[in-house]
Amino acid sequence: MENKNDMFLVKVRAKVELVNCSSNNKKINIGDKVIFQDHDEKKYGIVISLQPLIEKNTSLPIIIDTSSMHSIDDLSNIADYEKEVLEFCKERAKNYKLDMDFLKSECSLDMSKVTVYFMANTRIDFRELVKDVNNMLKGRSKLELWQINSREKAFILGGLGVCGREICCRLIGKFPDSVSIRSVKDQGLEINPSKITGPCGKLMCCLTYEHTQYIEMAENFPKEGTKVSVNGKTGTVKANNIIKNTITIEFNDSITVELNREELLISDNQSI
After folding, report:
1. Which of 101, 119, 148 is the last residue before a domain boundary?
2. Could you tell me the residue range of the domain that residue 171 belongs to?
3. pTM reported for the whole predicted model
4. What is the pLDDT of residues 209-220, one digit of tens each?
5. In whole angstroms, how far apart are CA 66 and each of 5, 24, 41, 107?
């Protein structure tokens, strides 16, 4: 599928970063590996969408090359170098008995900088490891170690959500400020960890997307426990289904029914 617009979305290597780019009049397709100029730095990424982020950059990075035009040998050398650094970090961490989970390494196009991503449950003193890695690099590259969290790990490794689609952080490029169990309760979802947590082990980002709408719609429903009147019979609200626009009522004779919201009147004769 070829992009007919001048803007598209690029995932920047392993980094937790998605950017809008301008095609610079080049033919760009999903899956293309591209090189673009972002301020003073050349970056390398993969086109994951022909539609830009909703939040558009004020100044778009410009595509200056694609992998089809870039030397395959150069890209292969970079990949080999990244693998070498990553394996060396793992070996030295094991030697020093450091509890570090190394996930991926990333080298700049000119190989002047190599970034290694890792996870750790506690604060780690890795100064000796850094010395060893710098000795191995022999001044070829500047070393950076980035400690990441579980959400960032999921972004780097990728995966599918329970919906069957690629996880949201890979598609949207940012994480919500916070996701709370309140979002689950307000949407009437079952508090089942297997259904409400993502591959990162945290509450799914998508729980925040419609939360505001649920809150607004809930204002038109009676709270659970409210007394309501239906055809002269008084009952108690047991549950609301905002999507179906229905309310479950339990009457005094223990009969429970699910009715459309418009059919009900609060016991003081005010419309719901």
Report:
1. 148
2. 167-214
3. 0.65
4. 888 888 898 888
5. 17, 12, 16, 17
